[in-house]
Amino acid sequence: MTVGADVQEQTVEQRRASAGELFGDLFLGPELASQDAYRSMINTATEVLIREFAASAKPYSGAAPESLLAALERQPVCPEEPSETMSELLNRLGADMLRHSAVVTHPACVAHLHCPPLMASLAAEAWIAASNQSMDSWDQSMAGTMLEEHVMAWLCGLYGLAETGDGVFTSGGTQSNLMGLLLARNHYAAVRWNWNVQQRGLPAASCRLRILCSEEAHFTVKQSAALLGLGEQAVVTIKTDSRHRMRKDDLLLKLKELKGSGLLPFALVATAGTTDFGAIDPLEELAAIARQNGMWFHVDAAYGGALAMSESQRARLRGIEEADSVTVDFHKGFYQPISCGAFLVRDKETFQSIRMSADYLNPESDEEAGVPNLVVKSIQTTRRFDALKLYLSLQHVGGRKFGEMVDHTVRLAQDTAVLIKAEPRLALLAEPELGTVVFRYMPVSRELNDDNSLHWADELNARIRDRLLADGWAVLARTRVWGRQCLKMTLLNPLTESAHTAIIIRKIVEAGLALETEQQAG
Ligand SMILES: *Cc1c(COP(=O)(O)O)cnc(C)c1O
User: Fold this and answer.
1) Full-prediction pTM beyond 0.85?
2) Could you tell me if residue 227 is inside a domain?
3) Contact 439, 428 (CB under 8 A)
4) Are residues 367 and 451 in the same domain?
5) For 97, 145, 408, 503, which has the most beta carbons within 10 A of its beta carbon?
6) What is the pLDDT of residues 316-338, one digit of tens each?
């Protein structure tokens, strides 16, 4: 460096405002002014949220996609200089965006496994965001790491995996299912072939690996197989019975066929709560079959896992304690804000097969010193402190009331099914198992005995759902069952009652009749 550079540096130093002057009002810190600014922002955000979202009279405004985009396009995404105060910004976005959101807290928002979040979890989210702990290493989340491990031990106990079990919070069922099959694949290769997949990649014989699950298992089983290099071809689906549960006889048959053709069934995925019908596969029997055939037993309880909170429903999960791994989602039946899920294993040693070590993050020396770096159990690195919101919710609500909420939604689905059966224009597809009700509008105008009429009935069902969404009366789901378009309510909101579902049913029938009349007129 020359003398000139030195001088230049000094002048820069003199000209520069302090970092605090420049950026101090952007971050929450020790300055009283920044704390006041934070309070005011959070208060305004809360007021706008209550006005534009919580107090909504309908589950959706009915706005079309183009008009929502048009409102946003009035402002550049990143203005060079901001032109609005925080209060103006929040009020504008409240009107342009929040007002046109799916109101998950509304009793008629009944499409998906999309829950209203508990208030306690919202308070926790404020802390999760503000404290911004990262769960990959202990030095980024000291007390947080211990809290997650503490909650995890309780969860393992809840599903009967306490003895040797362990687990980690995940982004949800997709990630948990992937982890289950990842561990299953690595375990099989290590035990059968003395092969370390993590280091050596897939051996040639891996093209013969097969995963078994029911026809109604979640699509992420196939997605996981694809991501794991086994291909969707590795997934063999087993037939379901009239209650949409995996059929044991077909499982045994398929196992025999697979083995007969030299294929290697290494994992059995049971579903505890299918997405459409809430069906629970026979876990105890499947656990035994998996054991007898040397297969990893993974239970996808993303939806049904919440039954464990209910005294009266818990027994329906019997057999889950036999699982090698379990998926459970808290952003469904545990009323947590997205995202929040967990992946549990019966034998904590099985996490060894995905272990990675980085000198900057979790050096081996930490391991020797007993420092818990949770990154070794996760396929994420930077990871949110989602355990906090579940913990605060459990502490605030208590187990009994959690159980009552589960019971309420199961009963509500049954009551709603009774209403549907009493309605001549609607046909119920199956008795509800958990909180979903699947049904179909049957047109008055046509005999349903030819392809054209069936096709028209399909279209009518799809249009009923679209119309109720556009009118904002109800957010309903659709699905196909045996090739036919159906409607679905997913009853997860503990504030929904049968008086609400009765109104939704009436609106569905009214919409169906109106669409039929329009069709005849047109
Ligand atoms: C929701 C769900 C998943 C996927 O979970 P995400 O949290 O959406 O990633 C997997 N399996 C079942 C049975 C589910 O209901």
Assistant:
1) yes
2) yes
3) yes
4) no
5) 145
6) 999 999 999 999 999 999 999 99
136, 382 in Cβ contact below 8 A? yes
pLDDT in tens, 276-289: 999 999 999 999 99
3-state secondary structure of 319: coil
Ligand 1 atom with the shortest distance to the CA of 275: 15
Our count of domains for the chain comes to: 2
In contact, 436 and 413? CB cutoff 8 Å: yes
The pick from 329, 379, 479 for probing ligand 1's pocket by mutation, whose C-beta has the most ligand atoms within 8 angstroms, reads 329
Q: Tell me if 284 sits within 8 A of 321, measured CB to CB.
A: no
- DSSP category for residue 475: B
Query: Which atom number of ligand 1 is nearest to the Cα of residue 331?
Result: 7
Q: Are 36 and 86 in contact (CB under 8 A)?
A: no
State which residues form the domain around 177.
126-397
Q: What angle do CA 112, 116, 118 make, to 5 degrees?
A: 145
Residue 47 resides in a domain: no
What number of helices (H) and strands (E) belong to the chain? 17, 11
Cα dist. 325→311, 318, 322, 339, 461 in Å? 23, 14, 9, 20, 38
pLDDT at 1: 43
Do 199 and 347 reside in the same domain of the chain?
yes
**Bridge-based pairing state of the strands 426-428 and 325-329:** unpaired
Kindly state whether residues 410 and 314 are assigned to the same domain.
no
Which of 357, 374, 397 is the endpoint of a domain? Answer: 397
**Ligand 1: nearest atom to the Cα of 329:** 7
